[in-house]
TrEMBL record:
Ranges annotated as spanning the membrane: none
Protein name in the entry: Transglycosylase SLT domain-containing protein
Alphabetic keyword roster: Signal
Highest taxon, organism lineage: Bacteria
Signal sequence extent: 1-38
One Pfam family in the UniProt entry: SLT
Residue intervals of the Transglycosylase SLT domain: 63-133
InterPro entries: Lysozyme-like_dom_sf, Transglycosylase_SLT_dom_1
């Protein structure tokens, strides 16, 4: 049985890792962890984007609504891309290039994406709270 199959078949993470480590050792393999900076970089990027949004959206209710949408749409990943639609960024603009109206750095700058997202939510739903209410009723905005 392969290590990957063992990992898929066992639900408990600790048990899976123990079983995989034993199986790997028996097969003469060594298990190595993924680089820690990969997960940390993503968490750092999300934290930075959230901090920027907090500064741009001082009202707590509006920030919370915006945050809920972004969490559901992209997980606060500035580079999130929907493989089926091509929607891009924190707020999943479709097409992503629409965000160029907020800045030429729309592909990489969370502030630019947040600015565009806020303008979109205000224009279409009146506010992030209005957008979140729509999202909750429809599963999209």
């Amino acid at each position: 049985m392969s290590v990957s199959r063992i990992l898929r078949n066992i639900a408990a993470p600790k048990k899976a890792l123990t079983t995989a480590a034993v199986a790997a050792a028996t097969a003469g393999l060594a298990l190595t962890a993924a680089p820690a900076h990969a997960a940390t970089a993503s968490a750092d990027s999300a934290s930075q984007a959230k901090a920027i949004a907090r500064k741009m959206i001082p009202d707590a209710a509006q920030y919370n609504a915006f945050s809920e949408i972004v969490q559901h749409e992209s997980g606060w990943n500035v580079h999130a891309t929907n493989s089926s639609s091509g929607a891009y960024g924190l707020v999943q603009a479709l097409p992503g290039s629409k965000m160029a109206s907020a800045g030429s750095d729309w592909k990489t700058n969370p502030a630019t994406q947040i600015k565009w997202g806020l303008n979109y939510m205000d224009a279409r739903y009146g506010s992030p709270v209005g957008a979140w209410n729509f999202w909750q009723a429809n599963g999209w905005y």
